[in-house]
Amino acid sequence: MSFKKKIRFIHKWLGLTSGLIVFIVSITGCIYCFHDEIKDMTREWRTVPVQAKPYIAPSVLQKKAKELYPDIIQSMVIYGGEARPAFVYGIKGEDGYFIYFDPYSGDFMHMENLEEDFFHIVEHIHLYLLLPPEIGKHIVGVATIIFIFLLITGIIQWWPKKRKQLKDRLQVKWSAKWRRVNYDWHNVSGFYISIVALVIAATGLTFTYEWMGDAMYYGGNLGRNYPEERAEPVIDTTVTKGPVSVMDKAFAQTLKMAPTRGMYFIWDQGPKNAIIAGSYPNALEYHHQSNLQFHPVTGELVKELMYDDKSAGMKLQEMNYGLHTGQYFGLTGKIIAFIASLLAAAIPVTGFVIWWGRRNKKPKQGKTKKAVN
């Protein structure tokens, strides 16, 4: 077999084994792409009027949430932005909950069970195929690696031997029979989305494999490591707690040290771990974050890592979600990611049609007669 025939053989069978998973992951990614915009249009509690008032302290929101839902174990308070509500995140059993409040008045707005949210379900299909996470994520991860290989082998097959053939390879011959149109569409769409699809697939692997996140970190740092920025602070648990709420003290310092009109979060990890606070310049965008860590008993600052002080590798890691969803490049990036995901979902379908057509191809009439004689 020639090199291209070997590639074609591998491409065919890997595509058949992973095609259904690639289709599911791609189409759910496509659906999820504009989930924030759709939620804003359909859920009134997602926005609030901007007021010239300070935010309600996190301890107040936690107290209100506890009074309303005493069975929910709280861990984090998020301030979504000047025009967005604050919400307390908590867990009851295996279900996660968002309890929304007006960030200026503290008035209760809504309680959301994440396990019943349509887009949360879509996200779990995308990440785990609705299987237990430890099983589903590896199935998706392996299928994603295969998809990356399929994109590369597909381009190798597609690449013309002669330069003058390139123009024909870059367009679909719409006047041909439907099987030829399907074949051209499979090849042409795969070529045009290849770069974007590779970025989406590679960044998606970080949700399954830690080594992919480490590869981004070391790649962004050109192989160098900065252990001080990834090290956890040492917490002295022998000190006594003061009268002021630690969460409130940590949040007040965060507002002063990392002021923004975007998002904040404040996360209580328990008495033996630092309270983590984060500041984002833009609402609903999870990059360019600055992080502060505070003593869980005294509320004193124990570690400061502002965005400008982070290494290139850590910045690249934190860009991962934005790159994966296209969000990092704004609305244009989301549209590109949406189209690429939609076309990626069609690739295994058109590929299966090509395989099925060749497998059930009827012999030409002349050859049939010759075989009979």
Give a structural overview:
By secondary structure, the protein is an alpha+beta fold. Helix content is 52%, strand content 13%. It has helices at 3-32, 35-42, 58-68, 118-128, 133-158, 166-169, 178-192, 194-204, 210-220, 227-230, 246-257, 312-318, 320-325, 330-359, 365-372; strands spanning 73-79, 86-92, 95-101, 108-113, 263-267, 275-280, 290-294, 301-305. It has an eight-stranded antiparallel beta sheet, covered by helices on one side. A hairpin with a 6-residue loop joins strand 7 (290-294) and strand 8. Helix 1 packs antiparallel against helix 4 (118-128) and helix 7 runs antiparallel to helix 14 (330-359). The protein is elongated and about 90 Å long. The two termini are 31 Å apart. The mean pLDDT is 92.
Placed side by side, the strands forming the largest sheet appear as: 4-3-2-1-5-6-7-8
Q: Can you give the helix content as a percent range?
A: 40-55%
Integer average pLDDT:
92
Number of extended strands: 8
Strand content is 5-15%
Number of helices: 15
User: Main sheet, how many strands, which sense, barrel?
Assistant: 8 strands, antiparallel
User: Over all CA atoms, what is the radius of gyration?
Assistant: 26 Å
- Which structural category fits the helices and strands? alpha+beta
Secondary-structure element order, N to C: HHHEEEEHHHHHHHHEEEEHHHH
Shape: elongated
Low-confidence runs (pLDDT<50, min 5 residues)? Answer: none
Q: How many angstroms separate the termini? A: 31 Å
